[in-house]
Design brief:
InterPro entries: CD59_antigen_CS (IPR018363), Snake_toxin-like_sf (IPR045860). Keywords: Disulfide bond, Membrane, Signal, Transmembrane, Transmembrane helix. The protein has 222 residues and is α+β, with helices and mostly antiparallel strands. Helix content is 27%, strand content 32%. It contains six helices and eleven strands. The strands form four sheets. It has a four-stranded antiparallel β-sheet, covered by helices on one side. It has a three-stranded antiparallel β-sheet with strand order 10-9-11. A hairpin with a 2-residue loop joins strand 4 and strand 5. Helix 1 runs antiparallel to helix 2. The longest helix has 17 residues. The radius of gyration is 22 Å and the shape is elongated. It starts with a helix and ends with a helix.
Length: 222
């Protein structure tokens, strides 16, 4: 992890050069060190893009902005892909754009909701952090255990991610119609929580209504 972080930093420090044409934001670090109040730089000839790279894991978010050549953009994207491959719980996004200051850092008070995201048992063992949309207020996690009524085969499904207040307020109805439909569900568990990264782990707090609804639906469809 440390080695890849150093490589990413070295690749992106190549963006930070002085010159006289394109102008881009220049900074590297966490949100205190790299934000919309950070300085700007005039790029050297040959640097045709403004670049941004955002790494996110349980240790926090790391940002790098600067000038870039086309090869710099390709290299940063390759390093991001390798980092996510070798560190499944790390997300990394590298992007380039054209135009003065087109890659703009977040403001100092940027405080997004972050939730773990996954869609299978294997993925959920090494779930990645996702920065939620501004409309998302909660993190959620769902577990269903379904026994198919014809083959008697049990299937487990797992899911984690971001959710809106409306989705969580209506979670029983959603769970009833979406995850407990068609087959006999022996367990249907969903939990929404308001704190960032609160949907880590595998334990669930299940409402009695959810369990009753799943059991009732299973009986009706036998």
């Amino acid at each position: 992890m440390m080695k890849l972080t150093v490589v990413v930093t070295l690749v992106l420090l190549a963006f930070v050069k002085r010159g006289s044409s394109l102008q881009c934001y220049k900074c590297s670090g966490d949100l205190k060190e790299c934000n919309s109040d950070s300085g700007k730089q005039n790029c050297e000839d040959g640097h045709t893009s403004c670049a941004s790279l955002v790494m996110n894991n349980a240790d926090g978010m790391h940002f790098t902005y600067g000038c870039a050549k086309p090869l710099d953009c390709q290299a940063a994207k390759s390093v991001c892909a390798e980092m996510m491959k070798t560190n499944p719980q790390t997300s990394c996004d590298a992007a380039c754009c054209t135009g003065d200051n087109c890659a703009k850092p977040y403001p100092k008070d940027y405080s997004p909701k972050q939730c773990y995201e996954c869609s299978s048992m294997e993925d959920c063992e090494m779930a990645k952090l996702k920065t939620c949309a501004n409309t998302d207020d909660y993190c959620y996690k769902i577990l269903t255990e379904v026994t198919h009524k014809d083959s008697n085969v049990m299937l487990n499904t797992y899911s984690k991610g971001c959710a809106t207040k409306t989705q969580c307020d209506n979670k029983e109805a959603q769970l009833f119609y979406q995850t407990c439909a068609k087959d006999s569900a022996s367990a249907c568990e969903m939990n929404c929580c308001a704190d960032g990264m609160c949907n880590a782990g595998s334990n669930f707090v299940v409402s009695a209504f959810v369990l009753f609804a799943c059991a009732l639906f299973a009986v009706v469809h036998l």
